[in-house]
Design goal:
Blueprint: H1 5-18, E1 23-26, E2 29-35, E3 42-48, E4 51-56
Antiparallel strand pairs: 1-2, 2-3, 3-4
Length: about 60
Amino acid sequence: MNLSFEHTLVEVWRQAFVDDAKFVELGNDRYPVRITPRHKLRQVDFVFDGNGIRGLEQNPETKSR
């Protein structure tokens, strides 16, 4: 099953940030969800169409301009 880029992003977001999974599963691949050391934010590095992509939780302390 090949997901579009948009569906892949939603799937990564759902698994890592909504379901609070330890691993994100995309097809047959599993990618660990890590915690950044300084700000304790969740991040997941995954591959889509041969390109490495990083999903990073937004710091809730970040102010919009």
